Automatic annotation (TrEMBL), chain A:
Alphabetic keyword roster: 2Fe-2S, Iron, Iron-sulfur, Metal-binding, Oxidoreductase
Protein name: (2Fe-2S)-binding protein
Pfam families reported for this sequence: Fer2, Fer2_2
The UniProt record lists the keyword Iron-sulfur: yes
A GO MF label: 2 iron, 2 sulfur cluster binding
Automatic annotation (TrEMBL), chain B:
Keyword Transport recorded: no
Official protein name in the record: FAD binding domain-containing protein
Signal peptide (from-to): none
Coiled coil segments of this chain: none
A GO molecular function held by the record: oxidoreductase activity
Residues annotated as domain FAD-binding PCMH-type: 1-195
TrEMBL record, chain C:
Keyword Oxidoreductase assigned: yes
Alphabetical list of InterPro entries matching this protein: Ald_Oxase/Xan_DH_a/b, Ald_Oxase/Xan_DH_a/b_sf, Ald_Oxase/xanthine_DH-like, AldOxase/xan_DH_MoCoBD1, AldOxase/xan_DH_MoCoBD2, AldOxase/xan_DH_Mopterin-bd_sf
Coiled coil region boundaries: none
GO MF entry, a single one: oxidoreductase activity
Organism: Umezawaea endophytica
Classification of source organism: Bacteria, Bacillati, Actinomycetota, Actinomycetes, Pseudonocardiales
Full protein name: Xanthine dehydrogenase family protein molybdopterin-binding subunit
Domain Aldehyde oxidase/xanthine dehydrogenase a/b hammerhead: from-to ranges: 25-141
Superkingdom: Bacteria
Keyword annotations from UniProtKB, A to Z: Molybdenum, Oxidoreductase
Length: 165, 273, 794
């Protein structure tokens, strides 16, 4: 076991890991934040997404020790107490999740996109979401949530009588 | 068995850690870390390049020197020819582009990937370093087969060098089955001013296959020229080791390679205009 | 459609998901998020051969790995655990069965079958040790293809069976031979539906905690059916049901996969009992991907009149269910048979079904539950007839649909369709997609080398099934309880693996009780708290969970109204409960807050509640109508109360040089009766369509000749990603069911078969100039290009 340091959601943590320990397991099991999920451990699904030193990464494909001394922000960092981040709010309003297992990747990549590209077009939204699998929603509502969070008035899902305006 | 972990601070540290030849290099980690998790890769020592200072693109006299740890995201905003556009088409989302490296992709040498054919088309040179010294291998000689390269186990890819274009136009196209699939066939076209085109096809064989074709006299959608490309690509593929993976058999790759090659050439010619 | 002023929380409103904040902030706890102190980790050692006899298992090296607590083999497991009982026992339906064990004892019948398990302090140690368990096999011949498995000299999976057939069944009535002989045209075809899988993003997982002192077992499970799981564990482990608690609070998607019956359920519980510690096992994605969802070959013949009326259908089905499983999956092909001929007036049908085992991992229950295949086949058949007669496929559908005034309508296979308006759906879809306009564009673009196609797919979705003598139950139970403070707790037997029926049920209860939805707490998926129930499957949760919640809520409301009327000194028929008050109907000023009435009943029972039982709680079961298990003169039963329907249209653009299919537009007209929450209905529908599109275009489990799964990650098993799915446009039609509480029908499965059929028809339509005949799904680029080449060679 090797000792290492992580700043998780602004809080400094010291943890012990094995050289093979994945960052996702360190966060979930050593740090104890379970909002970051494990869906595949192959880098394909995106459920393990975190923000590592300011950029999104799939924490199943990062060795914990590679992140020694790094700052990690997880999905738990998005809301401020009971105040949801606008991206979270939009996802809720737009029914952009069902089981919610994919949310870490969806929310954090959406946030990263909107920070660099405040008014993305559809192609940019789709490219940003490309690394996240969702098996429940069929993605349409996720795309409209990202666009809604960007403040874009037009939405992608036409003719849906149920949608809140 | 628990491996040792080493994150050297410089290249010399890396080559020292690899000197025994029983190390596994972790670049961006996007392939190799899952491979370790699933027991597909193991070694006595894990050599993590993330602190070795190998990231970044510098302009050298004989071209752009792309550090092995330069990520796709870094490449997108760089002016490295071809790779800057190819990088934005890498799937897996920003999370993969933020960590994955073109160097790592080259070393992984999956025939069904974007980078190999591009490096060959660009005439890149791979800079390999070991405790015994450094050497450069042309990209065309670097890829030896599916998941096999000229890199020795005690060597690290330090960087690759992309020579100046000299005004050549470029075109790139990849074909995949769905958003999330490995590329099936890729084609990178290098179109030097006035000269014949060099199309390098990836994914259709175990290593990138280079084909030289004349420029079309009419346009790139001229059936006669496309037939010419088709034949040239087929002839070249006949001599190459076929490649099959779970997603597509060799016959399909061979079947569509000329199509993708011609379309890629079309893009280069369009850019040339 | 909802009236504009309707609050979101009412029945028919689009209330947001009630667990939204917990899920969005990462606070929601899925099974792997429970990490009790001292929990050990299990890893399953799986067969590396497709068929073999276990000669020996050497566990010494594994046991020597630091941290390893237990290495369990099948032999030892069999000393402590009996066979896993079936969700649907084939024997109960006259079929062949075999004992399903948590670990195989003597023989293995597929690559990946559990043969041993390792428990260790860490996941890593367990995994490492598992790799060191040395299993020696005598390799036996195997068979991976169902049609080969039917040959007389094929290797047998289960030596005591007469062959490899679980069961052979025949369905349908009428004289198909005579009808075919009389038909103006007779067309035939063969369709292959490839093996796909459900693959929710959360894999399966179980955390079992055995409390030896009390003799009690608690299992946190990613599972759809906690009560059935409790019963199954009680049976396989010889425990009393009362000593087992199953908790399935948050489930990260399921789609049938997490219906119970998996060997690991019994296994993990047993490992906890044997080690005396909590034991957790979370599936690796490679294990999740083994579970098949469907694989069938259909050979059909249809007869039709010259004007396109289909008069007869013959269909022979060979279903490859892999190895037999205690899970419900093996039974799905029955539904492929009985759901034919779908929503069409085809009086004479003969459907022959062989459910066949092969040396592949089992087919597990999957959204669509076999009904999807019926639609794929029927919709292809309709298109083939249209093509043969030179008629438009939309028109042929119109001529054959059961007319809206014929319901309830009993089909040739015995299903009693409650209601619908299929022509209405067709009109809506054709309008929305601009059917005529697409045909024009198609004609314009063909000369330019672009090949557009449009395809239709109708889907009839029998929902909320009941299967006598099994754990497929058509009713469910809910308790509604009001506390002294007026807060409402709803405990229900149905579960929600993500779809949001918890929100819908809360809407129903709030509406029925006349209280704000914020007062309503919902408890699901806990066998110690919830009444006996059957969980989630077959689009049942809003029909029977919602129905039973309605009954229970009305009981409590009636009592509030009665007491309130006394307190207000008016007759009971002059009060109503609404907006959290009991008030006089025509004088809203005279009102009592519901909490005050509740408190009065529970604290002043003898003072003011003479003759009223002082309990604000009701437990009710709801049995919808239309289910009939008494066989009619043809032996047909009627296991479904409601039938949702939908019509799908897809516009594709096929690249004829590569075979790639690009989806340009998608419209689904959907009728699931009354919608309790339209946004959640749409969510289900879109999710199902996306799943259908995946299985139509890219998803396919690929096995090597040795029976090992090759498509074992998401780069080789291609789930749709955001860029693969076009905008899925939804149009609703509401034909209330006469047989359910609110007129609602099941929603959640419709989409898979319709999408597959529409895509297949669209691809064939696009490639009509080449004379291509589609023969199955998935239509991957290599397959499509192969079809073009083949047509050219003809
Ligand atoms: C979800 C997902 C989507 C992807 N999409 C694409 C795609 O669209 N196109 C595509 O081509 N690829 C794709 N890939 C693969 C991608 O190219 C590689 O993941 C990435 O480029 C590899 O770089 P890396 O730095 O992460 O390599 P690593 O995983 O760190 O290493 C890969 C291999 O190279 C070796 N290695 C790495 N760096 C060096 C070095 N400097 N010297 C010596 N050896 C080294 C490692 O030991 C290992 O064997 C995808 C991967 C994922 C997970
Ligand atoms: S768990 Fe990391 S990408 Fe799936
Ligand atoms: S909401 Fe279930 S996977 Fe996305």
């Amino acid at each position: 076991m090797t000792a290492m340091r992580l700043t998780v959601n602004g809080v400094q943590r010291e943890i012990d890991v094995d050289p093979r320990t994945l960052l996702v397991h360190a966060i979930r099991e050593q740090v104890g934040l379970t909002g970051t999920h494990v869906g595949c451990l192959t880098g394909d699904c995106g459920a393990c997404t975190v923000v590592l030193d300011g950029r999104t990464a799939k924490s199943c494909s990062v060795l914990a020790l590679s992140a020694d001394g790094s700052a990690v922000d997880t999905v738990e960092s998005l809301a401020d107490g009971d105040d949801l981040h606008p991206v979270q709010q939009a996802f809720w309003d737009e029914f952009a999740f069902q089981c919610g297992f994919c949310l870490p990747g969806m929310l954090l990549t959406a946030k990263e996109l909107l920070e660099s590209t405040p008014d993305p077009d559809d192609a940019q939204v789709l490219a940003a979401l490309n690394g996240n699998l969702c098996r429940c929603t069929g993605y349409n509502t996720i795309v409209s949530a990202v666009r809604k969070a960007s403040g874009c008035a037009t939405t992608c899902v036409k003719e849906s009588p149920c949608r809140k305006s | 068995m628990t491996p040792r972990y080493s994150a050297p601070r410089d290249l010399a540290g890396v080559t020292a850690a690899l000197a025994d030849g029983d190390g596994v290099v972790v670049g961006g980690g996007t392939m190799v870390v899952p491979d370790m998790t699933h027991g597909r890769t193991s070694a006595a020592v894990v050599v993590d390049l993330s602190r070795a200072g190998l990231a970044g693109v510098t302009a050298g006299e004989d071209g752009a020197v792309v550090g092995a740890m330069t990520t796709y995201t870094d490449l997108i905003t760089s002016d490295v020819p071809l790779l800057s556009t190819v990088a934005s088409g890498i799937t897996g989302g920003p999370q993969i582009r933020n960590r994955g490296t073109a160097g790592g992709s080259a070393c992984y040498a999956n025939p069904a990937s974007d980078v190999p054919a591009c490096l060959v088309a660009l005439g890149a040179r791979m800079r390999l370093a070991s405790a015994g010294g450094a050497r450069e291998v042309p990209a065309a000689e670097f890829f030896l087969g599916g998941f096999r390269t000229a890199r020795r186990p005690d060597e690290v890819l330090e960087a690759f060098v992309v020579p100046p274009l000299g005004g050549a136009a470029l075109g790139y196209l990849k074909f995949k089955l769905a958003e999330g699939s490995w590329p099936i066939v890729t084609a990178a076209t290098f179109a030097p001013t006035g000269g014949p085109l060099r199309i390098v096809v990836g994914g259709a064989a175990a290593t990138p296959v280079a084909v030289d074709v004349d420029r079309p006299s009419v346009g790139s959608d001229d059936p006669a020229w496309r037939e010419h490309v088709r034949e040239a690509v087929h002839t070249a593929l006949d001599a190459a080791e076929p490649w099959t993976d779970v997603l597509a058999p060799a016959a399909y790759r061979r079947r569509i390679a000329p199509v993708i090659a011609a379309r890629s050439a079309g893009r280069a010619l369009e850019e040339d205009r | 459609m909802a009236a504009p002023t309707l609050p979101d929380s009412a029945i028919g409103g689009s209330a947001r998901k009630r667990d939204g904040a917990a899920l969005l902030t990462g606070r929601a706890r899925f099974v792997d998020d429970h990490q009790p102190d001292g929990a050990l980790h299990a890893h399953v050692v799986r067969s590396t051969v497709a068929h073999g006899r276990i000669l020996s298992i050497d566990t010494a090296a594994a046991e020597a790995v630091p941290g390893v607590v237990l290495v369990l083999t099948g032999k030892r497991a069999a000393e402590s655990a009996g066979p896993v009982p079936y969700f649907i026992d084939p024997a109960a339906r006259g079929g062949n069965r075999t004992d399903i064990r948590c670990l195989q004892v003597d023989e293995v019948v597929f690559v990946g079958q559990p043969v041993a398990a390792v428990v260790a302090a860490t996941r890593q140690q367990a995994q490492e040790a598992a790799a060191l368990v040395a299993v020696e096999y005598e390799v036996l011949p195997h068979v991976l293809d169902a049609e080969e498995a039917l040959l007389p000299d094929a290797p047998r999976l289960y030596p005591d069976w007469p062959g490899n057939v679980v069961m052979h069944n025949r369905y349908g009535t009428g004289d198909t031979d005579a009808a075919l002989a009389a038909a103006d045209v007779v067309v035939s075809g063969e369709l292959r539906i490839g093996r796909s899988t459900t693959s929710p993003i959360e894999p399966r997982g179980y955390l079992a905690s055995w409390n030896a002192a009390e003799g009690k077992l608690t299992v946190h499970a990613s599972c759809q059916n906690p009560h059935q799981m409790r019963w199954m564990l009680a049976t396989s482990l010889g425990l009393d049901e009362g000593d087992i608690r199953i908790v399935t609070a948050k489930v990260g998607g399921s789609f049938g996969l997490k219906m119970q019956g998996h060997p690991e359920e019994t296994l993990v519980a047993l490992l906890s009992i044997l080690t005396g510690s909590p034991v957790k096992w979370i599936e690796d994605r490679r294990e999740t991907l083994m579970a098949g969802a469907r694989q069938q070959v259909h050979r059909f013949t249809v007869g039709a009149t010259a004007d396109g009326r289909i008069t007869a259908l013959v269909n022979n089905i060979v279903a490859d269910v892999g190895a037999l499983t205690a899970q419900a999956g093996w039974a799905m092909p029955n539904m492929s048979a009985t759901t034919l001929p779908s929503g069409y007036l085809v009086p004479d049908c003969r459907i022959e079904l062989d459910i066949v085992v092969t040396n592949k991992p089992p087919v597990n229950a999957a959204r669509g539950f076999g009904k999807d295949a019926a639609h794929f086949v029927m919709e292809r058949a309709v298109d083939v007839v249209a093509r043969e007669l030179g008629l438009d496929p939309a028109e042929v559908r119109r001529r054959n649909f059961i007319p809206a005034d014929r319901f309830p309508y009993r089909t040739s296979t015995g299903l009693n369709i409650d209601s619908g308006d299929f022509v209405g759906l067709l009109d809506k879809v054709c309008d929305t997609v601009d059917y005529a306009g697409i045909r024009r564009r198609q004609a314009e673009l063909r000369p330019l080398g672009r090949y557009l196609g449009i395809g239709l797919g109708f889907e009839l979705t029998p929902e909320s099934s009941d299967s006598p003598g099994t754990f497929v139950s058509g009713f469910d139970t809910t308790t509604v309880r009001m506390s002294v403070t007026g807060m409402v707790t709803v405990l229900t037997g149905v579960t929600s693996p993500g779809g949001g029926n918890d929100t819908g049920i809360a809407q129903i209860v709030a509406t029925e009780m006349g209280v704000p939805i914020e007062w309503v707490e919902l408890v699901q998926g806990d066998t110690d708290r919830c009444p006996n129930g059957f969980g989630n499957f077959s689009g049942r949760s809003m029909v029977v969970g919602g129905g039973s919640a309605t009954l229970a809520a009305r009981d409590v409301r009636d009592k509030l109204a009665l007491l309130g009327s006394r307190m207000l000194a008016v007759p009971v028929d002059r009060v109503e409960v609404a907006d959290g008050v009991v008030r006089v109907v025509d004088d809203h000023e005279r009102a009592l807050a519901v909490p005050d009435v509740a408190r009065a009943l529970l604290t002043r029972a003898f003072a003011i509640a003479d003759g009223i039982e002082p309990v604000l709680e009701s437990t009710r079961a709801y049995k919808p109508g239309n289910i009939d298990h008494v066989p009619d003169q043809f032996g047909r039963i009627q296991p479904y109360p409601t039938y949702s329907s939908s019509l799908h249209a897809v516009v594709v653009d096929v690249d004829v040089e590569t075979g790639k299919v690009v989806l340009l537009d998608y419209v689904m007209a959907h009728d699931c009766g009354t919608m309790i929450n339209p946004a959640l209905v749409e969510g289900q529908a879109r999710g199902a369509v996306a799943m259908g599109l995946g299985s139509a275009l890219s998803e396919q489990l690929v096995f090597g000749e040795d029976g090992a799964l090759l498509s074992d990650r998401f780069k080789t098993y291609l789930l749709p990603r955001a860029g693969d799915v076009p905008e899925l446009r939804m149009v609703h039609q509401v034909t209330p069911s006469p047989f359910t509480m609110h007129g609602n029908k099941g929603a959640g499965e419709a989409g898979v078969g319709g999408a597959q059929a529409a895509v297949a028809n669209a691809v064939e339509d696009a490639l009509a100039p080449f004379g291509v005949a589609v023969r199955g799904v998935p239509l991957t680029p290599p397959v499509v290009l192969g079809l073009i080449d083949e047509a050219a060679a003809r």
